[in-house]
Each structure stands twice: as C-alpha cells, then as structure tokens.
Amino acid sequence: MSKNDRFGRRTVAVTGIGVVTALGVGKRENWQALTAGKSGIHAITRFPVDLLSTRISGMVDFLPSSTRGASALTDELAETAGREALAEAGLDTALGGPLFLAAPPVELDWHERFALYRHGPEQEEGYRRLLAVARDGRRPDAYDQTQFGMIAERLAELFGARGLPVTLSTACASGATAIQLGVEAIRRGECDRALAIGADGSATAEALIRFSLLSALSTQNEPPEKASRPFSKDRDGFVISEGSAALVLESLESAQARGAEILGVIRGCGEKADDFHRTRSKPDGSPAIAAVRAALADAGMAADEVGYINAHGTSTPENDKMEHLSLSTVFGERMREIPISSNKSMIGHTLSAAGAIEAAFSLLTMREGVIPPTINYDTPDPAIELDVVPNIKRHADVASTLSNSFGFGGQNACLVMGREPV
C-alpha cells in the first residue's frame, strides 16, 4: 500500500473521530440515533421565546456549560469531541501536531455584560468598562470570553499540540476549512498529525433574532422534530443548532508505523469564494460548482467515482435549490442515482461545526455501510430530482463520499473522503 496519493503527496488518514450533537454525546450514541431517523430538534427552554417567530432549536442543553454562555459552551463542546477523537486514535494528551479549531465569532455573554454595568460608575460607557476589565485583570472570566483564540490556546495545551493553534471562522464552511488546513499541513510535511475540530455553542437569543431577521430560520414550531425538511417542497428555513466534531488527521505512514486503525482517508479538498451577496448564493451556482470540481480534482477523481453525497442541505428554499443545480451540473444525469442525504434534517444546522460533523458522519457512512436518511421528506419538490434517501436509512457499500459546506458570506468548501487508501 502506497504511503502517497495519486499526486505523490502524503496520504492523509483519519485515526480518531469525536462527535457531539443534539442527538447526544459520542459517535456511538449519535450514529444510532442518526441512522434510526431520530430528530434532536426541540422547543427552546434556555431563554424566553414567547414573542419570537422561531421557538425551536437543536441546542445541547444536556452539557453543564449550556447555561454559561456561547464561549463556555463552545469550549466544552470542542474539548468533549477532541477527547473522544484522541482517545480513539490512542493519543490522549499527546497529539504532537497542530490544532485547527473552527469556532463562532466571540461575543460577551449577557450575564457578563450586565455584570460590567453593575460594577462601574453609571456615567461610564460600557466599552470603557470593558477596557478596564481587560486592563486590570480583576475579571479574568470576562476577559477570556472576549478572546477569539482563547479556546484553542487552552485545548492546545491540554491535548499536547505543537505550534501556535489556529482558530478560524468561515461561517458554515468553518468545520470543513479546519479539516482542509490540517490536510494541507500534513501534505506539506510540516507535521505527521493534526487535530481538526469544529465546535459551535452559539445558539443564543441574539443569533436566533439575527437569523430570523434574515428570514433564514424555519417557523414551523409544531412539532419541532418536523421543522427541518431539506429538499422538500414545503421547506421554509433551517433550524439553528449546536454541536462539535473532531478528527485526528495523520499521515498514512505515521498511522501505520504506530499501528493505528485507519478509519478513512481525506482524498481531496476544494474551496471557492462567492462574492455575489453577504448571505445569498450566486443564482447560477457557479462558486459551489467550482468548489465541488476543485475537491474532485484535488482528489484526482472523476465525478462517477463518488458513491454518496453528504449534502449541505440546510432546508432553506434558496440553498437547497442552488445545491441541486450545482450537483446536477457536475454529475449530470447520474445525479438522480447518487444517494444524497442531509444530516441537518435531524441535527439542524450547527453553523461553525457543521462541516466537521458532516465529515465525521460521512466517514461513518463508509465504515458502517449505512447511509443515514433525510427525514421529514413527505412532500417532494418536483424541481429537485434527487435520491435523498427519504426517511429510512439504507444499507450500501460506499467507497467514497463528497461532503458539501456552503457558508454565508460566500465561503464554500467541499471534502472528498475515501474508505481506504488508494
């Protein structure tokens, strides 16, 4: 078995996977629920929603940090997934390579904002109080919450990472981008292994209101588990959610030398910017088409070698239409035959974490020989002719997958993964 890929680059294997979503903690619990078609979407209880149009989410209320703010919860999500992935890889706290963390933009949580106003002169502006907190060191908890790279710094020390940890935010493509950075670092020979994590605990009241103002969220609140309907004619928006996933990426040579189990390989990564609009995708789908083609080219694969597609599939009217257009352009008539499902029908849209979570599920699809369904597919859209694996899982021998991540702000990233090295 060659240690290099078709282009002579180091083959990048996956030796550890960790997952947390609204379905539960860990790969096993998530996979059982996902393949059973179970939904993790539920009514919001974390904050009042009486006057809001959207009152549902995929929040991870079962974690201790869920009441402590977005930064603390994102931290716990990232650590939980990272620990599981490293344990499976047999590395624990000895990663010995770089850490790439996809995380949401940091905002000071409301209880910290109120605390600032309680402990300062009334005539002093809020931003001056925040500066004072940062300078005098008397509120380290508030200071930490405002530092974008603080989570990665802590995790890098905890996991035994090397070098300066990288924190990135490329909207809904963030998780896939973190994986791409790890793959490229290994290919360049800068490290033997890397840890890529996507984590997002930012389903706050502010986020809910902002996405509602963009008309991006589903308002089908009853029953919550039926709200996310990717590719269905009656889809009306995505469901905001939280979660995390971590992948231990390793050169095939390094993994085999230490006897690690190979869970799959990352064959190709593609990205393409879309400058059409801050939130909307270009109507002709050309940036998404280019991202898919770039990933296939980077993998050295033809379109007919892809056996399954893990869709971005947000359940918004525009995104699902654009994704169908882009995939039909790349795969042609064969697009009607390739199984394509959306995990977001069950876990909602985990934003910064989505690309990493869906990459993890894509690897499990190949490993377990089971394709998770797209649930809530009761009203097909005649304008979107796809095999969405409707409502019930499917047993299938899948050797390669494509996972799509198309983010707000025109940030598109695609990953091509394989079950085994070639």
UniProtKB/TrEMBL annotation:
GO cellular component assignments: cytosol
Coiled-coil stretches:
none
List, in alphabetical order, the GO biological process terms annotated in this UniProt record. Answer: fatty acid biosynthetic process
Pathway where this protein functions: Lipid metabolism; fatty acid biosynthesis
Give TM regions. none
Residues of the Ketosynthase family 3 (KS3) domain: 9-419
The record's keywords, sorted A to Z, are: Transferase
Which GO-annotated molecular functions does the record name?
A: 3-oxoacyl-[acyl-carrier-protein] synthase activity
Under the heading SUPFAM superfamilies, the entry gives:
Thiolase-like (SSF53901)
Q: Does the keyword Transferase apply?
A: yes
Similarity comment? Belongs to the thiolase-like superfamily. Beta-ketoacyl-ACP synthases family.
Q: What is this protein called?
A: Beta-ketoacyl-ACP synthase
